[in-house]
Design goal:
By secondary structure, this protein is mainly beta. Helix content is 3%, strand content 32%. It has one helix and 20 strands. The protein has one helix at 28-34; strands at 3-6, 41-44, 49-50, 57-59, 65-68, 77-79, 89-91, 103-105, 108-110, 119-122, 134-136, 139-143, 145-147, 158-162, 165-168, 176-178, 182-186, 189-192, 203-205, 213-214. Strands 1-2-5-8-11-14-17-20 form an eight-stranded parallel sheet, covered by helices on one side. Helix 1 (28-34) links the parallel strand 1 and strand 2. The longest helix is centred in the N-terminal third of the chain and has 7 residues, at 28-34. The N and C termini lie far apart (34 Å).
């Protein structure tokens, strides 16, 4: 388990290395790719806007944390407004090799508001990638939904969103589609701009989600 630092000004993807704040990566995507051991941490040390990522960042291990220590006054921004419908984060591979326990903490993520198919996460198999996932102290906007399919957990695991704000674009779909499992939303703000008279709700307990909990 190690820490991979990211700094847009001082970083270099060619020389970035583990556990050395003097040798940070320049892009979040490169650091996420290097964090391939369970429990690794990717730590952003500035408040930059990161708009030079690849179209998708793939989490390659369990219990990886993407966080920041930039300042109490601001937070780094992942600007994915040019991604279109490409999801920003894939937790595991597209062939069912899902990873668990991913933590997204203290980040602003900006999606493609003009594209009503933009989603934050890719969980193409609707399998275990949401087990133990935590989204905390984030501001996420410009997406029509959190994920492209159901948010499901298994084995007593919990999907948690806490102290975060989401502003969804007005696509006629449920923005948070809960499948089977346990989901905890605590101290959050959810909204959606515009819409129509046939607009679907932001949160949907699809397929009889069991054990769902909404905190205040």
């Amino acid at each position: 388990m190690g820490t991979f630092f990211v700094n847009d000004t001082n970083g270099n993807d060619g020389t970035g290395t583990e556990d050395n704040p003097a040798r940070p990566f320049k892009t979040i995507g490169a650091a996420i790719a290097a964090a391939n051991t369970d429990g690794d941490i990717v730590e952003i040390t500035d408040e930059a806007t990161y708009d030079d990522e690849s179209a998708r960042m793939t989490v390659a291990a369990n219990n990886v944390t993407l966080t920041h220590t930039a300042s109490e006054l601001g937070r780094p921004v992942i600007d994915a407004s040019s991604f279109g419908t490409a999801e920003v984060i894939r937790v595991g591979t597209n062939s069912g090799n899902q990873k668990t326990g991913f933590v997204l903490n203290g980040i602003e993520v900006k999606g493609s508001s003009a594209d009503l198919g933009a989603t934050l996460f890719d969980n193409s198999t609707e399998a275990d990638c949401f087990n133990g996932m935590v989204i905390s102290d984030c501001f996420i906007h410009g997406f029509h939904s959190i994920a492209d399919k159901l948010i499901q957990t298994s084995g007593g695991e919990v999907f948690t969103v806490q102290s975060s704000s989401f502003m969804f674009t007005p696509s006629n779909t449920f923005s948070i589609r809960m499948g089977v499992g346990t989901h905890l939303f605590n101290n959050c703000f959810f909204s959606r701009s515009g819409g129509s008279s046939t607009q679907k709700g932001i949160i949907d307990g699809f397929n009889g989600s069991g054990g769902g909990t909404l905190g205040t």
